[in-house]
Amino acid sequence: MDRAARLPCGNGREILSEHFGDVAEHSWAAHYEPNDAEPLVGYLDSGREPIEAELGGALPWEEVLVTARALIDDHIRRYGALRFERRGATLIAR
C-alpha cells in the first residue's frame, strides 16, 4: 500500500503538510460496550478471507472462532460487557 492510499495518524499531518498549506486534524474516539459475543465473533470471521490469503489455509479457523466466542462470553459474564475504545483522526487538507 502506498502513502497516498492510507495516511497513518502518527505522521499523516506531516505527509500532507508537504503538499498543502493548511492541514487540520480532528481526533475522535468511539466507545464500545457489547454484551453479546456474536457481533464480535462475526467481525472476526469477516476477516477470514484476507487472513487466510496471507497465512494460508493452515489456521484452524473454526477453532479460532470457538475459542474467541468462549473467551468473549467469559469476559462478558464476569464484567457485564467487553469495553473497548477505537481512536482515530480525520485530516482535512487545503
Share of β-strand residues: 15-25%
- Backbone shape: flat
Number of strands: 2
Radius of gyration: 19 Å
List the helices and strands and how they pair.
Elements (H helix, E strand, L loop, with lengths): L11 H6 L5 E10 L4 H10 L1 H8 L5 H19 L4 E10 L1
Antiparallel strand pairs: 1-2
In short:
The chain has 94 residues and is α+β, with helices and mostly antiparallel strands.
Structural notes for this entry:
- With 94 residues, the chain is an alpha+beta fold.
- It has one domain.
- The protein is built from four helices and two strands.
- The chain has a two-stranded antiparallel ribbon with strand order 1-2.
- The longest helix is centred in the last third of the chain and has 19 residues, at 61-79.
Question: What are the salient characteristics of this protein?
Answer:
alpha+beta, 4 helices, two-stranded antiparallel ribbon, single chain
